[in-house]
Amino acid sequence: MRLVIRYALVALAPLILLAWLWLAGTYSALRDSVGIAFVTTGFVTVFAWRGGSHRKPAFRGQFLRAFSIPQVYAWLIACWVLLGVLDRAMEPAPLPFTGHVASPVKVASQAADLRIGLALSGGGYRAALLHAGVLMELDQRGIPISNISSVSGGSIIGAYIAQGGDPAEFVKAVINGRFRFKRELLSALNLPRWLLPFGAFSRRDVQAAIVHRVLLSSPSSASAKPPALIVAMTDISRGISVGATDNGYLLAGPTTSRFFRTGEAITIDGLGDLATRVSISGAFPGAFPALRTNAIFTVNPEPLATSSDVREIGMTLVDGGVRDNLGLKLLENADASARGTSPTFVPWSGFQLGEEWKLDLIVISDGGKSLEADENNKGLLSEVMRAIDVTGLETGIVRIMTPEPPKVALSLPSSLSFGPDAIIVGFPHPHNAREQFFYFQPQQLDEATLDRIVELIPDRTTAKNTLDAYRRTRGPTNLTKVDLECVIPKKGSEDSTECRWWDLVRLVGTDIEGTVGVFRKSETLEDDYSEADATALVRLGRYLVLLNARNLDETLTKAAERKFPSRRKEP
C-alpha cells in the first residue's frame, strides 16, 4: 500500500506541472518544452544514474524507485522556477513609440487645427483591438487625435498611444501573446511577493507590471507629440468619476466637476505611475481588488502647502466603467473646465485644466459588449465576465448625450446590436435577406470610402470583382430594397442594377457580421486571441469609422466652420 501511495505521489508531480501549463498558458510552447527537458535531464543525470558511468542506471525497470518524493517535487519546483526565469529573460523588447495618431502623414483639410477628443470605452482586450482599428482608420483618413479619454480596456491601448505608440504594434503584441495575465499571475517569480507579510501585492499589480513592461517602458521617444490622456477610474465610496491626467485629477459626479492640479492643489497616494492608473481603470470589483487610498486637497484657491482649508477623504478606486464605460463624461467635463463653463469652475491655476483640453469634436469608440451574449457560456466565471459586460452597457452608448462638444458615436449598427426595448418585446433578428445588411448603403458613400471598405474584405479578388460589377451597373442613389430575384436569382436577373447592388451589400455585410460574431463571443477578461480573431476585431473598428464616414466628415466640417468662420462656404 505504501508503494502504491509513493508511486501515486511521484506520478502526481508531472500532472501538477501539466495542469499549471494548461491553466497559466504559455508564451512559447517550444521554450517551455526545452526548459522542462533541460531540468529533467539534469535530475536524471544527478539522481537516476547515482553518480558515475560505472554504475548501472537505476531506471532500468525501476525508474520510479530511483527518485524519492522530495526529489520529484524538487524537479517540479525547478521546472516552475526555470520557466518563470526564461519568460523574463527571453521577453521581447517593449513596444516602440513610433506612432503618429496626433499628426497623420496627411491631415484632412476639414480636420486641420481642430482639437479632436477620442473616448475609448471599456471592454478588455476585445475593446482595445477594436479601438486599434478605429485609430488606424482615423489615421488613414487624416483625422488627428489630440486628446484621449480611456476606460478599462480602452486605457490599455490609450496609455500606449498617449506615449507615442502605434496601434498596429499593439495589435501585433496581442496576436503574439504578450499579455498573458494568468501566466504572470502564476509565475514562480511572483511567489515571494505573494508570501511577504507586508505590502499589498495583488492581481492588479500583476496587470500593472504587464502593461509597464510591454507598453510603457520603451527607451525610444515619440516621433511626434502624442495626444493628451485622461484615465478614468471610479471612486465607489462617493460615486464619482476620477480622471487622472499628466498634471492633475478631474473629479466628476452628477452635480460636480472639479479639477485639482497635482502638488499645487491635490495629492493622491498610490497613483504615481501610468501603469498603475491603467490597472485601476480596469479593476472591476470581484475580478480585481480596489485601491484604497487617500486624497488630500485644498478647497480654497491657494496652494496646498499653505491653504487655510485642506481636506482629506478616503477613496476606493475601481474600474472607470462602473460609472461611465465610455469615458465620455470626463471628456465633456474636461472641455467645460478648460473653457471655464463648468458650474463649479474657480479661476485659479490649481483648479484649471490647460488650454489643450478645449475640444472642438468628440469621437466615441464604443467597444462595450453587445446586449446579447452567447447563451452557451455557463458557469460562475462566465457569469462574472458577463456581469462586467452588462455594467459597461448600462454606462455605455445607451444614454442621452449633451450636444456640446459635437459628437460622433462609432458603435455597432442597431440591426446587429438591438437596444433593450427591442430585446424585451422580442424583436427578431432581421433574417430576411433583403433587410439584414441595410446599414451598409454603398450608393451613399464617396468612391474613396467605398474602396477602403472593400479593401478590408479578406477575399480581395471576389471583393474587387463585385465592386467593379456594381460600378458598371450603378443605378439611382435611393436604392433601399432588393428584388427577391437577386436573392434567389433567375437566369438573366443577375446583371440588373438591383442585383449588383445586392451582391456588394451582401458581401460587405457578411464580413461585418462575421467580425461582430467574433466581438460577441469574446469575453471582457480574455487576453488570448488568435490572429484571425484579433484581425477581425481590428477590421470591425475600421468598419465602424468607414460606415460613419459621411457623418464624421459633415461633423468635422461644421466644427471647423464654427471655430474658423473664414472656412465657411457661401451658400
Structure in words:
Pfam families: Patatin. The chain is of the alpha/beta class and 571 residues long. It is built from 19 helices and eleven strands. The chain folds into three domains: 90 residues, no CATH class; 295 residues, Cytosolic phospholipase A2 catalytic domain; 121 residues, no CATH class. Strands 1, 2, 3, 4, 5, 6, 7, 8, 9, 10 and 11 form an eleven-stranded mixed β-sheet that branches. A hairpin with a 4-residue loop joins strand 3 and strand 4. Helix 1 packs parallel to helix 3, helix 2 packs antiparallel against helix 3 and helix 9 crosses helix 10. The radius of gyration is 28 Å and the shape is flat. The relative contact order is 0.11.
SSE order in H/E notation? HHHEHEHHHHHEEEEEHEEHEHEHHHHHHH
Counting H and I runs of at least 4 residues, what is the number of helices?
Answer: 19
Principal-axis shape equals flat
CATH class (first level) name of the largest domain: Alpha Beta
The largest sheet is:
11 strands, mixed
Mean pLDDT: 85
Number of strands: 11
Low-confidence region ranges: 57-61
CATH architecture of the largest domain: 3-Layer(aba) Sandwich
CATH topology term of the largest domain: Cytosolic phospholipase A2 catalytic domain
Structural class by sheet pairing and helices: alpha/beta
Strand content: 5-15%
